[in-house]
Amino acid sequence: MQTNSTYEAQSVSSWITHNIELIAWYALSAIVLYLASLLADQRKTEKNLEQRVIERTQALDEANQELRQEIRTRFATEDELKKSNKRYRALIETAGIPVIVINDNYLIEHWNSACEAVSGYRYEAVLGKDFLRLCIPSEQHESLIWRLNKAAASSTNQENVETKLFTAQQSKRSMLW
Prior knowledge:
Elements: H1 4-18, H2 20-94, E1 100-102, E2 108-111, H3 113-119, H4 123-126, H5 131-135, H6 141-153, E3 162-166, E4 172-176
Antiparallel strand pairs: 1-2, 3-4
């Protein structure tokens, strides 16, 4: 006599054999639905990605336009600064009084022809040199630095400072700054 579990196994096996086409159709339908779902997800993802690319491209185009405008503005400003600088240099160069331009470290950035005439130093020889060490006696350094800093801190300070100035020939001349 067959056991109940053996009978059930044969019954299931028999049912599968008789309904194999139906099972295959269900399995194939499930696979097709799964693949269709994957394809729909892929299309949705591609569409979202395409939309993000379009939005990002538009944002980059806008940023690019802003940068182009900024570059045009900077070039125009640079051209104006060059023109202004030429006028400034011409004014300083033709001034009848000595004009010395120094930076925060007291290095000479510009020296006009009137300075050359007074000091005997040529522009090329003094450019980038320490103004204090080159031209001012050491005992007057601290006083001049203090007065220069005071003048730089106040746009209305028009205090005159008198110092000695070493010339290229190592003589001293009195200068009123």
